[in-house]
């Protein structure tokens, strides 16, 4: 049976400090495992990150999330009770140059308070409260090496980390591919099979409040847009904890449009998405001016198709999980990270039981 050869579970490296990696880390440390999380960025969060300007904080990735999974609903209930998340949006619209209609959706949605990245910051602090843990930021992992003692990680500066008995990769599949390809054909093929789409996300801080669009309420919070370039607009100052901010918009582009404009200058993208937004108001409407605006390109924003597998792992101690394994949603990522950790724990408990049984 292959599980007999699996390494023990005592010292794990996780690549990626997005919600998948941090959910995975928290479940493992609860089980007494030593965990080091690596991320190439300067802060945790990944696609739940927030741009922090002097004037405003603007969510650049996920804007609001659902909680359908029972375990994730429990986590969200705890976060709600501690003020880390809040219900948002309450006032949502469907908008096009032809008009605005209230968009009724009975499914509750939540956002981080006072910003989306508060959730991943909380998860990062929570796992680091356990002994034998570390969060290694600004560390781009470029290669994995296998030795008789376990897995060694190598960063872009040539520094080495390890040995670890397991490595969990939570990056989008194209970023995991060069790391797993020399070692595991099955995992490499899984990465190649999970194509990713790109998305431009622009932001704009305005010098005054927006006028109320015809047929809508002045307190609208989010709008799904029918326009070839722009698909969603959210008003960050309507999110709980950010009421003091000036009018500050996140403007999400359509995936097709993003891919056509993938190599454009961020400023040009911000201009195009703002121009698209202005078509939602009658032509003679005076609009506030933009104080600052630009755009962020998410090269690997979401998988092109949903999958039904939550994670993958190999007997050599490599595992992969993340939103590409189910659907591009915050809750899918959390569930994938949590369940992959649980699968590693269950397998190690099973292996220990089999080996103590065979030693009797
Ligand atoms: C524009 C946009 C809008 C979205 N809107 C919503 C929404 O409204 N609702 C919703 O539910 N979901 C939304 N999503 C999806 C949601 O954000 C993701 O499903 C979720 O955040 C994915 O988390 P993750 O941890 O799996 O991946 P990520 O957050 O991408 O984390 C992976 C981490 O790996 C790091 N990394 C990559 N390669 C390396 C390496 N070699 N070495 C070290 N670190 C590395 C990255 O820096 C990153 O921090 C949106 C996503 C985008 C991009």
From TrEMBL:
Positions of the Amine oxidase domain: 114-345
Domain of life: Bacteria
InterPro entries: Amino_oxidase, FAD/NAD-bd_sf
One Pfam family named in its UniProt record: NAD_binding_8
PANTHER family in alphabetical order: FAD/NAD(P)-BINDING OXIDOREDUCTASE FAMILY PROTEIN, FAD_NAD(P)-BINDING OXIDOREDUCTASE FAMILY PROTEIN
Protein name as annotated: FAD-dependent oxidoreductase
Annotated source species: Vreelandella janggokensis
């Amino acid at each position: 049976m292959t599980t007999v050869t699996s390494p023990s579970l005592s010292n794990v490296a996780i690549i990626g400090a997005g919600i998948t990696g941090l959910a995975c880390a928290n479940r493992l440390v609860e089980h007494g495992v030593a965990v080091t999380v690596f991320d190439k960025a300067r802060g945790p969060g990944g696609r739940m990150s927030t741009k922090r300007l002097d004037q405003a904080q603007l969510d650049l990735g996920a804007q609001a999330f659902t909680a359908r999974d029972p375990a994730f609903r429990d986590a969200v209930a705890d976060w709600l009770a501690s003020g880390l998340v809040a219900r948002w949006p309450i006032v949502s619209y469907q908008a096009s140059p032809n008009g605005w209609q209230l968009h009724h959706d009975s499914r509750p949605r939540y956002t981080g308070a006072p910003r989306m990245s508060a959730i991943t910051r909380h998860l990062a602090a929570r796992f680091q409260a356990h002994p034998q843990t570390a969060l290694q930021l600004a560390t781009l992992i470029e290669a994995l090496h296998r030795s008789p003692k376990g897995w060694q990680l190598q960063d872009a500066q040539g520094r080495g980390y390890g040995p670890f008995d397991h490595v969990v990769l939570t990056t989008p599949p194209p970023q995991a591919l060069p790391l797993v390809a020399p070692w595991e054909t099955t995992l490499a093929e899984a990465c190649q099979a999970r194509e990713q789409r790109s998305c431009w996300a622009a932001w704009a801080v305005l010098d005054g409040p927006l006028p109320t669009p015809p047929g809508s309420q002045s307190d609208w919070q989010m709008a799904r847009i029918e326009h070839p370039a722009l698909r969603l607009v959210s008003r960050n100052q309507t999110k709980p904890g950010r009421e003091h901010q000036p009018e500050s918009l996140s403007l999400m582009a359509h995936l097709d449009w993003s891919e056509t404009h993938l190599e454009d200058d961020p400023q040009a993208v911000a201009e195009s998405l703002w121009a698209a937004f202005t078509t939602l108001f009658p032509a003679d409407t005076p609009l506030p001016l933009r104080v600052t605006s630009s755009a962020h390109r998410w090269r690997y924003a979401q998988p092109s198709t949903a999958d039904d597998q939550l994670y993958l792992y190999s007997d050599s101690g490599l595992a992969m999980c993340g939103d590409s394994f189910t659907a591009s949603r915050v809750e899918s990522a959390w569930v994938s990270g949590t369940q992959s950790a649980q699968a590693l724990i269950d397998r190690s408990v099973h292996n220990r039981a089999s080996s103590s049984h065979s030693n009797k």
